[in-house]
Amino acid sequence: MSNLSGFVKRLRDIMRNDAGINGDAQRIEQIAWMLFLKVYDSKEQDWEWDDDGYVSIIPDECRWTNWAHDDKSGSAMTGDKLLNFVNNTLFPTLKHLPVDATTPIKKAIVQTTFADANNYMKDGVLLRQVLNVIDELDLGDYEESHAFGEIYETILKELQSAGSAGEFYTPRAVTDFMAQMIQPRIGEQMADFACGTGGFITSWLKELQKQVKSTADASKYGNSIYGIEKKQFPYMLCITNLLLHGLDIPRVYHDNTLLRDVLDYTEDDQFDVILMNPPYGGSEKADVKNHFPGDLASSETADLFMAVIMYRLKQNGRAAVILPDGFLFGTDNAKLNLKKKLLSEFDLHTIIRMPGSVFSPYTSITTNILFFDRTKSTEETWFYRLDMPEGRKHFSKTKPMELKHFAPAVEWWNDRREITVDGFDKAKKFTVSELVDDLGCNLDQCGYPHVEEEILAPMDLIQRYQEERASLNAEIDRVLAEITALLGGGQE
Description:
Elements: H1 7-15, H2 24-50, H3 64-67, H4 79-95, H5 105-114, H6 124-135, H7 142-158, H8 172-182, E1 190-192, H9 199-209, H10 215-222, E2 225-229, H11 232-244, E3 252-254, E4 271-276, H12 301-312, E5 313-324, H13 325-329, H14 333-345, E6 347-353, E7 367-373, E8 380-385, H15 407-414, E9 419-421, E10 424-431, H16 432-438, H17 458-489
Helix pairs in contact: 1-6, 2-6, 2-11, 4-6, 5-11, 8-9, 12-14
């Protein structure tokens, strides 16, 4: 297929004419399930070649080759016949495939992927046109398959502006930087407990790929990842992403990480590396808190994931986690206890402060990357503020953050020193006693000097206000408790 670069545009132009497609999010979801089936079909051809006894979990009539492929003989289904087949045969069949605990992962993913999928298109002729564009992809050709992996990235990027779907996508520059700094090693296993479309997993694999030197290495490479995703749509995108990256057995599960008691985790549930951008700003149902010790139970999703991460990181393991500013300055009970646990049981060695527009246009809340390992308790923590590149005021959808923008942080990482710019700390080292005793576990250091007032989107403003109010309330409660204790201590 020569016009690979125009792939997404061609699909978009056809779908615009279909009355069933309402907006970007539905368009991308529609493309997603068809791409999954096309990619899975290509994989199955490989598996059949390698294993004469391979039997597909998909009934013959529902395999891509037998209904979507157009052999140009004029017999390909189209119009109402095609629409009827997709809605009344394909979807019901794939949603209810027989799957149990013994079903191999590479087969079970078909049923899991289609569990909540939808066909939005209402015009069978237009649907045929879309299928033909997708079917032109030659995923058996290594170069074209690799090139399409890059095209798939552009589809994922479009999610950032497709309404709430943006919450599943972490800019590739950020995941690549974190994977590079964590330095993967063959034989290690990494996990992401809210993996979205699989950005951290693919960045990890890209770094690890450089070390594959033998078939034994390749086997360890293929078994090096573990992911969980709660929402069905990003789960589908993630599975397709991993199949495109050559993983025959993508160990990614459609589940909710927060519905298991953290105290039940054993060493078997722990990982060498955890790379994550936990969902933040959301709140979980009250009963979810019951899965956490009382001192760590929080209504803030990111806090709960942070607790999970600490329970599921192996001894001597390493982690890099994105968290919003609210975690750094928060003084409510759960956040304070999480930070004390982090500093006393882990080595929180580095915090990289990132500009507010990194996740634009999805959110303007300022985020940070916390790097820590489970080797010893924290003795000192370095803070580094990554400033906007020269001549840029902010990142945007059309001019997103790129890996090269992390270059100053990489240079500093390898040669650490304290830096002051215009009287403000840009990089500074704090001892753990300074952070805990002097600053009351306030990790909001080396922040951005606000020369002009920052104007946040309404929902971001509300979230920032709620975080600051919770911290203020906690501080008031603490001071009142001290005063009460003093007054109580003075009574006869």
